[in-house]
Design brief:
The chain is of the alpha/beta class. Helices cover about 50% and strands about 15% of the residues. It has one domain (about 1-255): Rossmann fold, CATH 3.40.50. The chain has helices spanning about 10-20, 35-50, 65-75, 100-125, 150-170, 185-190, 205-220, 230-235, 240-255, and strands at about 1-5, 25-30, 50-55, 80-85, 130-135, 175-180, 185, 205, 225. A seven-stranded parallel β-sheet has the order 3-2-1-4-5-6-9, sandwiched between helices. A two-stranded parallel ribbon has the order 7-8. It starts with a strand and ends with a helix.
Length: about 260
């Protein structure tokens, strides 16, 4: 099967790509860093004897999702599995954070994910088969003081994922959501979280998250929450008021 993975040059996306490579799937790798993608693609082609295609794509820019879709189609490739992994966050009080960075975050986390889901998803619906994995976060379950736009964007991803799975399951298409907690990737630095408590309380390794995600996704699970504490938090979110949840999140990720 052909697997398209965005944000494939590092973190969870890279680890998922490696797992699909080990199983012999054809990889379509998209990220901003073409050099890193080429390095990974060459390594996996040699090691696993698979076919790879790389696409330099900055999905935080308007029109990038449609451009990526066009490039995939221009190569005559069909996408059987779509992994919407690319995403970014930003830490800080909402009235102080950078508006342009937040606009780019919305473009990446929401708009591009939505466009790719529609463009490739409708082909899957027509073919009566396909799988989509949208990488969200445990942030999707809570309001997020000090990361307000990021948490809101992941709540959108959760809602969209559940709605599309309901619509498309009758057409043979699976739409799943992955909800990791703090994970050892480049996210912390990109989100400017150096002085937040959030990553001081322990993280999962990207490799561990990807292994759980791969197994459960390929077995048809719709809501994937790696890690016992993360599962507990996702369940607790339904038992407390939103105001209480916001207060807890604020204390969890306030400045050190």
């Amino acid at each position: 099967m052909n697997v398209l993975i965005t944000g494939a040059s590092g973190g969870i996306g890279m680890e998922l790509a490696k797992l699909f490579a080990e199983k012999g799937h054809t990889l379509l790798l998209a990220a901003r860093s073409e050099d890193k993608l080429r390095e990974l693609a060459d390594e996996w082609m040699r090691k696993f004897t698979i076919e790879t295609h790389i696409f330099k794509s900055d999905l935080s820019k308007a029109g990038a999702a449609e451009k990526l879709y066009g490039e995939v189609k221009a190569k005559g490739l069909k996408v059987d599995i779509l992994i919407n992994n690319a995403g970014v966050g930003l830490f800080g009080e909402f009235h102080k954070t950078d508006l342009i960075k937040e606009q780019e975050m919305i473009q990446l986390n929401i708009t591009s994910l939505t466009e790719l889901s529609k463009l490739f998803g409708r082909e899957m619906v027509e073919a009566k088969q396909g799988k989509i994995l949208n990488v969200a976060s445990t942030a999707a379950f809570f309001p997020g003081p000090l990361m307000a736009v990021y948490y809101a964007s992941k709540a959108y991803v959760k809602s969209l994922t559940e709605a599309l799975d309901n619509e498309w399951s009758d057409h043979g298409v699976q739409v799943s959501g992955l909800y990791p907690g703090p994970t050892s990737t480049g996210f912390k630095d990109a989100a400017e979280l150096d002085d937040s408590k959030l990553f001081k309380n322990g993280t999962m390794k990207a490799e561990a998250v990807a292994k759980i995600a791969f197994i459960e996704f390929m077995n048809g699970k719709r809501q994937i929450v790696p890690g016992g504490m993360n599962k507990l938090q996702s369940k607790a979110s339904r038992l407390i008021s939103r105001k209480t949840a916001a207060n807890i999140v604020r204390k969890t990720q306030d400045r050190v």
